Amino acid sequence: MSTPATAPSPTRAAPPEALDDDPPVRLVMSPLDRVEVPPTMRVATALDRVRRLDTDHLVTRCGGRVRALGEVDLLRHLRDGGARPARMVDPVSELARPVTTVGPEMRRSRAAELLLAQDPPILVVTVDGAPAGLLDAATVLRSVAGSR
């Protein structure tokens, strides 16, 4: 038994079943420039940036590769250093870790699978070999919720 297709409503360009519920990541990624920091940025400054931007991750370029670090990495660095204020001025390049890059046409569902296997849980979207965007769990969830 088949169900009839929903007629387009005056407010939608297509019926709901025609909408792509698994879009390519290029349509849901966050801009990279918003969260990119220089590798020489100090841990204290990076913590401030994470809080001001209301983001979980920052990215930096070290040795020609994009690397990532999260707020949790910054805090762990300070905690593990003990009572040593000098840890606040360490550069983020010491903490940033390599990240997986994906193409812009990868589907959101596949990216979500990859995020679950990543540490840190972040993907960098590359276009023509150049970093162009960022995917993390919050970005994927916002896109699923429709508030991208």
TrEMBL record:
Residue spans of biased composition, Low complexity class: 1-17
InterPro entries cross-referenced by the UniProt entry: CBS_dom_sf (IPR046342)
Taxonomic lineage from the root: Bacteria, Bacillati, Actinomycetota, Actinomycetes, Pseudonocardiales
Region Disordered, annotated ranges: 1-23
UniProt name for this protein: CBS domain-containing protein
Organism, as annotated: Actinomycetospora rhizophila
